[in-house]
Amino acid sequence: MSEYDFDLFVIGAGSGGVRAARIAAGYGARVGICEDSRVGGTCVIRGCVPKKLMVYASHFADEIEDAAGYGWDIPSATFDWQRFIAAKDVEIDRLNAVYIDLLEASGVQLYLARGKFLDDHRILLTDKTGRNETISAETILIATGGRPWVPEVSGAEYAITSNEAFHLPALPQRIAVVGGGYIACEFAGIFNGMGSAVTQIYRGDALLRGFDHDVRRFVGAELQGKGITLMLESDVIRIEKGPDGLNLHFKEGKQVQVDTVMYATGRVPHVRNLGIKNTDVEVRADGSIVVDEYSKTSVGNIYAVGDVTHRINLTPVAINEGHAFADILFGGKPRPVNHEFVPSAVFSQPPIGTVGFSEEDARRHFGDVEIFRSEFRPMKHTLSGRNEYMLMKLIVASESQRVVGMHLVGMDAPEIVLGFAVAVKSGLTKEQFDCTIGIHPTAAEELVTMRTAVVESTQG
Ligand code: NDP
């Protein structure tokens, strides 16, 4: 018998932690896990899942409008925020219970408590009532995720983050969303679809820094086309509460009045009060935990997966890292996680799907590249009359002819890109794409029929 209470103890029952705990237990390890919020973590409780339900809820506005072009008369449609939030909460409760059941069925011992390192092997657990208990484990996995970060702006206490956006008592009539990243673009679309007047405020000159420049240009135009007021190169310097709402003051002296302001200005690793200083685990200045390709920290028996390591902050990546960790340590299958060509989506409206290099990065990495680009009106909107377009872009490394980047904006883009990501990750060439016969009529068939390349050279 080991001298420890557990073979593995996991701090944080989100996507990465739960996966690691279940798989390790499946290999016969004695596993414990603690969670001080709700089992399921950011993705299930206050992230991807409720967000996607909100995207669906908000998209009905377009669907109802589009139906008219197809002969449907829908006399009056109104949206009931409270009814939707209640339905959404029932689903989140169901998923929370599923996650708890999964842990129990795997034989993992769950502690609804906050975990804090006392040393490399001991964790102090404090539950909601303040009751303390100390456990020990041979191996400890940190899977505490991240939390929203808001810059120090005067009046920031009036702002909400995505955490609160899921539980607002009413739909705001006027909302400002600060930020130009994933969460800001997604929530701007959600509130706009539900009927709020939305102003999205971003400090840069095009949304979604780091994405391909065509995607950034295209999405900005589409969001504005949907009725979102986009304020680029704008910085909120002060928020004041007035009798008629919140007044946002800008550097240039401009003011905007709203009922709610939501900051989506990034997330930071969740290491507060984790007692990390009681170990020798190396932490970067931004709080993220340094790990190797096997998710091992600078301390031999302590590992970390997911957003707290700030590698690629996406749920499926955390799940993969958690699974690989358990396979390596408890299943005898050494396999590092491959972080190359990870597809991702932004559930803006229209949504984005992307895998591989942006045009700019591809040019830096591969030298000459060939660009295949197409912008067209999806078939659905021929009758709906909606002025919404779709962008498809393929980036091919000239020398190898390998497809190294794929960027789509428009209906079903995330679904399409995930399918094609297998081909991109497998290193298929443009010729191999072209010898695949498309399905007609679909938007995706464009990806196997793009013929005219623009050759982009590193020499400019
Ligand atoms: P992002 O990093 O995507 O975006 C943060 C935004 O805030 C950027 O536009 C950034 O501007 C801006 N910003 C940062 N600091 C300031 C500041 N001081 N003042 C004004 N603006 C500022 O973070 P998110 O919060 O949107 O999302 C966090 C992460 O969660 C994502 O990166 C992603 O990994 C993950 N996520 C994934 C989703 C998905 O898969 N669909 C959905 C939601 C989140 P700048 O670009 O100029 O730095």
Give Rg in angstroms: 24 Å
Question: What is the total tally of β strands?
Answer: 22
The outline comes out as globular
Helix count, DSSP H or I runs of 4 or more residues: 12
Low-pLDDT windows of residues: none
> Could you tell me the mean pLDDT?
96
| Overall helicity | 25-40%
Strand proportion: 15-25%
Question: What characterizes the major β-sheet?
Answer: 7 strands, mixed
What ligands can be seen in this structure?
NADPH dihydro-nicotinamide-adenine-dinucleotide phosphate
Would you tell me the structural class of the helices and strands?
alpha/beta
Distance between the termini: 66 Å
How are the secondary structure elements laid out?
Blueprint: E1 6-11, H1 15-26, E2 31-34, H2 41-46, H3 48-67, H4 81-105, E3 109-111, E4 113-117, E5 122-127, E6 132-142, E7 146-148, H5 162-165, E8 174-178, H6 182-194, E9 197-201, H7 213-225, E10 229-231, E11 236-242, E12 245-250, E13 255-258, E14 260-263, E15 267-269, E16 302-304, H8 315-330, E17 344-346, E18 352-356, H9 359-366, E19 369-376, H10 380-384, E20 390-397, E21 403-409, H11 413-425, H12 430-434, E22 454-456
Parallel strand pairs: 1-2, 1-6, 2-3, 6-16, 8-9, 8-14, 9-10
Antiparallel strand pairs: 4-5, 5-6, 7-15, 11-12, 12-13, 17-18, 18-21, 19-20, 19-22, 20-21
Helix pairs in contact: 1-8, 3-4, 3-6
The protein binds NADPH dihydro-nicotinamide-adenine-dinucleotide phosphate (NDP).
NADPH dihydro-nicotinamide-adenine-dinucleotide phosphate is lined by residues 151, 179-184, 186, 202-204, 209, 264-267, 313-314, 344-347.
